[in-house]
Design brief:
Radius of gyration: 30 Å
Largest sheet: 5 strands, mixed
Number of helices: 23
Mean pLDDT: 86
Strand content: under 5%
Low-confidence stretches: 43-74
Number of strands: 5
Strand order of the largest sheet: 2-1-3-4-5
Shape: elongated
Distance between the termini: 100 Å
Helix content: 55-70%
Order of helices and strands: HHHHHHHHHHHHHHHHHHHHHEHEHEEE
Length: 566
């Protein structure tokens, strides 16, 4: 055959596969070609040979042209895939909303108030500068989250419903990004769907859904995986990004760094992907140099950005490292402490010894290497490396491990999918229908199990949402009932209030709920001596709090008028 004839045959083969199945990736194409070579080398069957069970199942009688049976093209089965994809997406949205809809009624938590106040009180120019100069420490700490707070407040005001609505919308986008990245890595819709389901809702990550004070983790995941999805989509063409794709990729990466420090590990993820999926042809210096210049370019460029970011954010008077809670301790003991804490949080076994954690990591690595699976190796390296930005500081809560959880879910989803494939290998169905029925059954069964586990738990264990947020709602409601409006620039004295003396939440609630940064709040709880009658003349408003209610004792007038408790 001529080269042109071979090209035409190859195009026809891909067209037939694309019509009946999804277009194969590079890994699947190589596997198909290997199978074709084995079939071509096999001995042709003789009339006396008995057909095997496998060949009987796979054999499809070729149509015989003629008046009674005209030759027709292969049926287009893409509509089946579209139906399954749309049905799975709808089920996932309903599942996620059923588990998280209660968050739409949750009020502002203490973290919300502090974050929103900081984003609102400082100038917009200062906030924009902090986002653009992402490599410098600033008053905002994580400026992308502050930008989110300021934008929502500018359009919706002091109404928590819109903050939670936006948060849930980003979380749903994160589910789709999880599916997209997992599918590119595994070349399997089944594994991608199971990974998206596992990442859609985790009870241990409840703060992400019910406390928007964790918007930094949500935004970091969104921008980080948006950058990964874009890069993997480009690399699927076996090409390097074009100019506009490079620009979009680095904008997403900068936004991820502005959201939270977890994004600093993106260069490692890119390098691992290229080494596993597009390794150097040989280990010769020339081949390695070419690989670094082409396949390794993204890892090197983002690595340079990450180094600048780490140096800039670690220095300066506004650096988070000045806070003891964020001061790193680069020791093995600290690393194992945070690793044990993470394992204990998710497996409800707080006393995990260090040897058990190391044994678990080793077992996962052995399984990935024994299976010779690139997706398992990537997932294992991801779950090991992604926690490093917070692995050497004081242990964090489960919600801070939102990004590392991706590696665990992809690893587990791959094992479940491979096990189900092994158990159903002899089913009397064509490969096309077997894969789709198995994937749908796994998806629906897993969703039913997870929903039955998570739904009864609610969010009662999240103190910020179940205890502190309702108290803040009552405080604001009672305050505005006592004083529907206050004069700008007023001085407000609170003889008593329900807020802890060491918290500034009352100041935040007063200024934000009235929308006036000129109001000044004074609390007797914070004073060494209780003010006398002469001192109270210096305040425009005086409030007292008794039996769960605020009472206005004084408001401004020509000479100030006193109001009884009534």
């Amino acid at each position: 055959m001529t080269d042109r004839a071979k090209d035409e045959v190859a195009a026809q083969v891909l067209a037939v596969i694309g019509a009946r199945f999804e277009r194969p990736g590079a890994e699947d194409t190589g596997d198909i070609l290997d199978r074709a070579r084995r079939l071509a080398r096999a001995r042709p069957p003789t009339p006396g040979d008995a057909p095997s069970r496998t060949s009987e199942r796979a054999a499809v009688p070729a149509p015989v042209p003629g008046p009674s049976n005209p030759t027709r093209p292969a049926p287009d089965m893409r509509h089946v895939d579209h139906f399954l994809y749309a049905s799975g997406a709808l089920l996932l949205v309903v599942y996620f909303f059923r588990l998280t809809r209660a968050s739409l009624h949750v009020y502002f938590t203490p973290d919300d108030l502090a974050n929103l106040y900081r984003a609102w009180a400082l100038s917009s120019g200062h906030l924009l500068k902090a986002n653009l100069l992402f490599f410098l420490s600033s008053d905002f700490g994580r400026p992308m989250g502050s930008l989110w707070y300021r934008v929502i407040f500018a359009f919706a005001g002091f109404h928590p419903f819109w903050f939670h609505t936006s948060n849930l919308a980003i979380l749903m986008a994160n589910i789709w990004l999880t599916y997209s990245v997992a599918r590119r890595l595994a070349q399997s819709r089944e594994i991608a769907a199971l990974s998206a389901l596992a990442m859609a809702y985790q009870y241990r990550l409840g703060w992400l859904y019910f406390d928007t004070g964790f918007i930094y983790d949500v935004l970091c995941y969104f921008f980080l995986f948006a950058a990964l999805a874009l890069y993997l989509r480009v690399r699927r063409r076996a090409a390097l990004p074009r100019s506009w794709e490079w620009t979009a990729f680095f904008v997403l990466y900068v936004c991820a760094l502005d959201s939270k420090e977890m994004a600093v590990m993106l260069p490692a993820f890119l390098g691992i992907y290229e080494l596993l999926y597009h390794p150097p042809i040989t280990r010769q210096p020339a081949a390695l140099y070419r690989w670094l210049r082409c396949e390794g370019r993204a890892a090197l460029l983002t690595g340079a950005v990450a180094v600048v970011f780490v140096i800039g954010r670690s220095t300066g008077p506004l650096s988070l490292t000045h806070n003891p809670a964020y001061r790193p301790s680069f020791t093995w003991a600290q690393f194992m402490l945070t690793s044990r804490h993470f394992a204990g949080d998710f497996l409800t076994m707080p006393d995990w010894p260090a040897w058990a954690v190391v044994l678990l990591w080793t077992a996962l690595a052995v399984i990935a290497l024994a299976a010779r699976s690139r997706v398992l190796c990537f997932a294992w390296l991801f779950l090991i490396l992604s926690p490093l930005p917070i692995a050497f500081i004081a242990p964090r809560g489960p919600a801070q491990y939102y990004v590392p959880l991706f590696g665990w879910t992809v690893y587990a989803s791959t094992l479940v999918s491979r096990t189900a494939s092994f158990l159903t290998r002899d089913a009397a169905l064509s490969e096309y229908w077997l894969t789709r029925l198995r994937g749908a059954a796994l998806f629906v069964a897993s969703m039913a199990i997870l929903y039955s586990l998570f739904k009864p738990l609610g969010y009662a264990g999240i103190t910020s949402a179940s205890v502190e947020a309702p108290q803040n709602r009552i405080t604001v409601t009672q305050l505005h009932a006592a004083a529907p409006s206050v004069r700008p620039g007023s001085r407000l004295l609170f003889l008593n209030d329900p807020i802890r003396p060491d918290w500034f939440n009352l100041t935040f609630m007063v200024q934000l709920s009235y929308g006036d940064p000129s109001l000044r709040v004074f609390r007797v709880k914070e004073m060494k001596y209780k003010p006398n009658d002469m001192d109270t003349e210096n305040y425009d408003y005086i409030f007292d709090y008794h039996e769960g209610r605020f009472f206005k004792l004084k408001e401004p007038g020509p000479a100030g008028k006193s109001i009884g408790r009534g």
